[in-house]
Amino acid sequence: MNDLELFEHYKTTVYRYCLYMLKHKGDAEDICQEVFVKAMLADRSDLRNEKAWLLRIAANECHSLMRRRSRGRDKEQQVFLQNDPLRHALSVETAYERRETAVEFGSLLGQVKPKFREVLLLYYMADLPMAEVAEMLGLPLGTVKSRINRGLRSLRKLKEEQDIHVKKGSDVHVSNY
Amino acid sequence: MGIVLRVTEQQIRQGLRGLPDGSPDYEAIWQRICTEVKLRRSGWNEQPGLPAEKPTASRARRWVVAASAAAVMAASGGTAVYFDHAANRAWTAADAGQKLEAYAEAEGVRLTLNNAAIGRQPLTEEEQMSLRMSLRETAGRSFELAEFGESTLTDLDTGQKLEISGTKRNIFRRDAQGEEPVLTQYFSGSLPATGETKRYRLTMKDLFFNQTVETPLEGEFAAGSEYVAIPEEDLKIKITAYDWVSGGNRLNLKYEANRDWPDSQSGDLPSVFSKEPGKIVIKNGEKPLTSPVWGSIGAEQTWSRNTSFTFRKPEGQQIEDLSFAYAYVRTTDKASGEWTIDFAVEGSQAAESNYTLKIDGQQALEERTGMTLPEAVVSPFEVSIPVNRQEGNNGLPGGRFLFYRDILLQVDDLEITGFQAPIPGQPYVPPGIDPKSPENIAFDLVPDAVTDLSGKTLTLKLRNAVVVNEYPDVWTGIEPPGDQGQSFSETMPDQSVMAYKVTRKGKDVHVQTLTENKFYLIGGTHLKVDGRMYESDLNETSSKYGGDFGYRIDVFKNVPEGSDFSINAGSYGVYDSSRDLDLPISD
Description:
The complex is a heterodimer of chains A (177) and B (587).
Chain A: H1 3-22, H2 25-41, H3 50-71, H4 75-79, H5 92-102, H6 105-109, H7 114-125, H8 130-137, H9 141-176
Helix pairs in contact in A: 1-2, 1-3, 1-7, 2-3, 3-8, 7-9, 8-9
Chain B: H1 9-17, H2 26-41, E1 63-65, E2 82-84, E3 98-106, E4 109-120, E5 127-138, E6 145-155, E7 163-165, E8 170-174, E9 181-188, E10 197-217, E11 226-230, E12 235-245, E13 250-257, E14 279-284, E15 287-290, E16 306-312, E17 323-346, H3 347-350, E18 355-359, H4 362-369, E19 375-378, E20 382-386, E21 400-411, E22 414-421, E23 440-444, E24 458-469, E25 476-478, E26 486-491, E27 497-505, E28 508-514, E29 519-521, E30 526-529, E31 532-535, E32 542-546, E33 549-556, E34 565-568, E35 572-576, E36 581-586
Antiparallel strand pairs in B: 1-2, 3-4, 4-5, 5-9, 6-8, 6-10, 7-9, 8-9, 10-17, 11-12, 12-13, 13-16, 14-15, 14-17, 18-19, 18-36, 19-20, 20-23, 21-22, 21-24, 22-23, 24-35, 24-36, 25-34, 26-27, 27-28, 28-33, 29-35, 30-31, 30-34, 32-33
């Protein structure tokens, strides 16, 4: 698979993983870009599972960014104002798109803890075997299973709460008329 | 009336599998990837960083790999072992907050909980509690790095486990005096309010003692050579590519290992510490010189059997004087057991290091910048300075002030680097900053373990003001662009030199402007063809600013063949050191 084929084949998987891990479109684009830059600079001749490998890079990049966020030590913060700010400007369309997406399933996922969200994305969205997820994250298989279950429970709870909220809202609306 | 709704697992699975991607512009991402790959292959890419000579700490830290030194620090989960220059400075702060001095012992190791401090997490509105711990007795064990396998903090009144903020690793490293290994860990969640007391239980399990080990890679270092990297594990590496590029300043290195990274969980006392993958380091004699360039494949967290690294040749070194070694972390001892400490935290005492200080010299600051910084809000973890200024042109002579590029907080003889964000009129904000939040200057004290500023001499140092210059009448005439890039330059009225490289790519024209990081482009270049103005496509713009190198590439779409081409630099920021200021901070 050449570079362009690699990008075309896996761009959506890598980007979606970054988007739902980082919850920020600009950051997701930057990390997705970095993942494929690294992939193109690497020797892939002996690579057996390109998707898992790309997601491993993506996971590491996302972890790094989230750590930098949490520590407030983002190296890029030093030079962020020297970078082209307009590249990151939100268009009206983008802002609208973000609002639209926010009411969908992804917004619920965004409320799930990162450690659970991560395994849910790798297992269900990226369709990686559980053992691959465990190896990629350096976790015992049992921990991955447990995180998937806890993540699913958390999502289910959030979904039910949202549905109840919508249902209640609709009841109030009807009663007012 | 109760509402019963059941969401099936199947629905959840379908939702996860059908997550939308929000339709990003993949074509633009691909273009940026290609540009970046091309630049990195050409050896142009430098990672962003501050000028190398400044002895500042915090965000300006630079890392070199550890070989045999006293303080080893692993920055976060899974990272390779790095040695932090700043960790060895002879400066330490008194502990803030509430003194605890509670301890637990197991396996001859005494874990002491020294103090607890509460304050706002850096860059957020949420509070966190720091617990400072130390290993006061280790039964004579020798180690560089000690790490517990697990730590939990439980609220004894509710049973709730508190979240660990930041790194989950429990790494003890020696303090500035090199005496007792210390760890400060941060928790959020169930914290006591002012006047309230909460009871907690700290539980730590299984302590690993680790040393950094190097295996020299002797003989001629070249592609095809094979070396034993970790003798105990029969881990060998074979060099598959060894190329000095960029005029001998960079080394592209590839190697493959004969086996996977050893799994240290399988043995009671593993020969390698599995959380820290090994790597090749460059040396001159006994002195470790450099680790792989930040951003190299595999240089951050990953270890794979086939690995590519890029090294930057240390300044002033000759290639023939360099040697190579394989560095990894070995577990030398393990204390299996559990350390449990019950303690109580009183909210007011733990939060006593939160206060405000006055910043002097406001008139001079306002005259130079149009902004004022009246006070510094201090917490145990951060110093935050709200910025007061009007948006728009501040009417100052010599260009509109935007911000200071280098902002330092001097605490006695330590300098901590801060940053200013969000800047009015600049849409991009760094990750973690709410773009709608008030403009602020922030200094993160956590990386420097500064926990108490009381009694210290504090100075706010503002350097290299960025001001905006724009010369709409200065157009540089150029030849009609062709497939081969053509170079042109223009010396602007402020003596900034714009070095343009112009290339036609099909219907589009690419204008690359090299800045050498003496200035940076804000709005981007403008192109005029036979009297008609063209604006670049911002989605295809790319830029990189870091080290001594900086550039921006503007892409003008669908530009016709013409005869009269000219370029204007647009608005750009220059650094003005005449506005540098030192502002004392006082009670």
